[in-house]
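Field log, afternoon session.

UNIT: design team B
ACTIVITY: writing a sequence onto a fixed backbone
BACKBONE:
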């Protein structure tokens, strides 16, 4: 099948390089493994370039892992497909193939010396000394199922694409005009005073409405006094809670469950630890001495080794995760600090303890209520599942809901169902869907809710929306009129104070307690003020301007004290202009390179093997 790929590559604006970097960095521990025996078969062909099963599978796995890290939980491929991840990855690797074809066509490549430099600089291949280690390199390639020549080819292709990208977008240098226009608007700040105007400032309480005003409020707002559609429903249900109340838990089973959840109820003490390994104990001792003397910090020592803190972080560990010698030192410390040296499984090391997390032991008696709930909940679901067949048979045999309730554990109930107003089982998506779809005369069917509950319902009657008689909602109408009338009076008072402020009166003279805001940008909100306050202040044309702002439940008056335009001459703002221009150039370059890659795809022609893609995806959880 031949099809142009038009998926927007928004997950990585510079198109392919996110994926290719992941492919190259896969050597750090995410090995490329062929799927079945067809790892070299093409899932897509772009001109003469092929996107193999291995390349596509690895890119898909890498992006899936990256997404899981971002959201903080494991994401399945099925879930990721709902975000379009599979199409985005396919689009990216196809674009990479198109670019490979172009670099080959124009003869763009790098020499052996450059390949060697990149190889030596790859931190995945560096040993404890921070330098290239041949053993580490060979082991990494072995884990990745790659030969040196294959990895060299990856480096050459990646470098050629980088050169091509630089040639396409490297010359984009926007003038300062764009940044100045943007920052003139976004970076301008203003100083102003504002004060709330409230109903307790009114000279008198709002009077009671006349009968005519009540009638007008009722007539002018029919939606507010119209009852929603009501569905009169008869239903039977059996929920886990109903069944659990009838189950007496087995004490042995409770103890067995408690024992099986030992990791949950017996949490060992842990420490948040960084570990820095040294080639010799003498070097480790020298490092710890320099830290204890105050000459250096732990971070200084890490940096001097050519590493970052993330490279030496062990995260949260228990004593079992460390050697005996290290555990004794690390867990002997009563507060965060640095200890060592002590033997580790990689050699002599010093340890920084960043946080101390106490252990927790929960006794059986303390855990018992939770254990009972879990054990009986599992059994309750089983009881409910076992009863479905009998209930289905009764309904299929013509039994009414009332008769089923008499012959089974299901409970009969009636409800005037209003969408969005229900709770419990009636608020579940399954019940809501069934209640909304039901028609008079429908055959009741057993439906299972996500929590394990089952139910069947019968629609008796639909009561359409109707205007509620005034006599029944009179008190509500009076409250609504009073609220609206009070609001009008407060706004009128605010406008009177606005006029006085504009004439030169102070907030204090008008009985207002102002709040002063200094140096606010237009994108910053003000606590306890109407949401539109800052926007209204920025709409004032000059210093001294006054405005009244109405919020959904508040009113405020504000006076502008000062306007601070963006100053492009300060050192900080010159840097800001430079950064904005750099980001703008990057965005333009990304779009330009995106379209360039699309043009290469169109020129070369793209063939997609959807069946093979489906086979690859079927093997990724």
């Amino acid at each position: 099948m031949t099809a142009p790929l038009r998926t927007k590559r928004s997950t990585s604006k510079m198109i392919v390089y996110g994926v290719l970097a992941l492919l190259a960095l896969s050597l750090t521990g995410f090995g490329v493994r062929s799927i079945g025996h067809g790892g070299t078969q093409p899932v897509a062909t772009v001109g003469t370039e092929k996107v193999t099963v291995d390349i596509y599978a690895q890119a898909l796995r890498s992006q899936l892992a990256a997404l899981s890290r971002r959201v903080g939980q494991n994401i399945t491929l099925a879930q990721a497909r709902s975000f379009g991840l599979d199409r985005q990855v396919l689009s990216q690797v196809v674009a990479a193939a198109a670019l490979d074809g172009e670099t080959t066509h124009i003869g763009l490549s790098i020499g052996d010396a450059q390949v060697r430099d990149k190889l030596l600089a790859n931190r995945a291949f560096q040993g404890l000394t921070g330098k290239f280690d041949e053993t580490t390199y060979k082991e990494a390639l072995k884990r990745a199922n790659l030969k040196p020549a294959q990895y060299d080819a990856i480096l050459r292709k990646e470098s050629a694409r980088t050169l091509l990208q630089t040639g396409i977008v490297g010359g984009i240098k926007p003038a300062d005009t764009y940044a100045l226009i943007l920052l003139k608007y976004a970076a301008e700040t203003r100083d102003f005073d504002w004060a709330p105007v409230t109903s307790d400032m009114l000279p008198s309480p709002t009077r009671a409405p006349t009968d005519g005003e009540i009638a007008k409020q009722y007539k002018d707002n029919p939606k507010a006094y119209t009852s929603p559609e009501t569905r009169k429903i008869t239903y039977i249900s059996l929920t886990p809670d109903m069944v659990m109340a009838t189950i007496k838990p087995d004490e042995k089973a409770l103890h067995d469950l408690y024992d099986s959840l030992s990791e949950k109820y017996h949490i060992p003490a842990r420490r948040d630890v960084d570990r820095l390994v040294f080639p010799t104990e003498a070097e480790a001792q020298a490092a710890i001495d320099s830290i204890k003397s105050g000459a250096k910090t732990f971070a200084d020592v890490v940096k001097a080794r050519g590493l970052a803190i993330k490279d030496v972080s062990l995260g949260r560990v228990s004593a079992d995760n460390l050697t005996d010698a290290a555990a004794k030192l690390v867990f002997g410390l009563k507060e965060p600090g640095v200890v060592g040296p002590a033997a580790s499984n990689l050699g002599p090391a010093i340890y920084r303890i960043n946080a101390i997390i106490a252990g927790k032991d929960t006794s059986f008696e303390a855990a018992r209520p939770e254990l009972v709930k879990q054990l009986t909940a599992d059994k309750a679901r089983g009881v409910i599942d076992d009863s479905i067949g009998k209930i289905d048979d009764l309904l299929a045999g013509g039994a009414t809901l009332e008769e089923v309730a008499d012959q089974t554990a299901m409970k009969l109930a009636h409800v005037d169902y209003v969408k969005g107003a229900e709770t419990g089982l009636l608020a579940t998506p399954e019940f809501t869907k069934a209640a909304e779809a039901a028609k008079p005369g429908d055959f009741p069917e057993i439906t299972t809710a996500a929590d394990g509950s089952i139910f069947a319902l019968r629609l008796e009657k639909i009561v359409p929306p109707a205007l509620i008689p005034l006599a029944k909602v009179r008190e509500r109408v009076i409250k609504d009129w009073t609220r609206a009338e009070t609001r009008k009076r407060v706004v009128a008072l605010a406008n009177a104070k606005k006029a006085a402020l504009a004439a030169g009166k102070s907030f204090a003279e008008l009985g207002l307690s102002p709040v002063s805001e200094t140096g606010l940008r237009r994108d910053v909100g003000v606590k306890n003020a109407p949401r539109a306050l800052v926007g209204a202040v920025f709409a004032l044309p000059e210093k001294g301007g006054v405005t009244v702002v109405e919020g959904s439940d508040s009113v405020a008056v504000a006076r502008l004290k000062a306007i601070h335009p963006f100053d492009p001459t300060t050192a900080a703002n010159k840097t800001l202009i430079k950064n904005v221009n750099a980001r703008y150039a990057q965005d333009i370059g990304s779009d330009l390179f995106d379209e360039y890659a699309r043009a290469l795809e169109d020129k070369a022609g793209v063939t997609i093997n959807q069946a093979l893609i489906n086979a690859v995806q079927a093997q990724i959880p």
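LOG NOTE: The chain has four domains: 17-171+586-618, 189-210+473-564, 230-241+374-464, 269-358.
NEXT ACTIVITY: expression trials, pending approval
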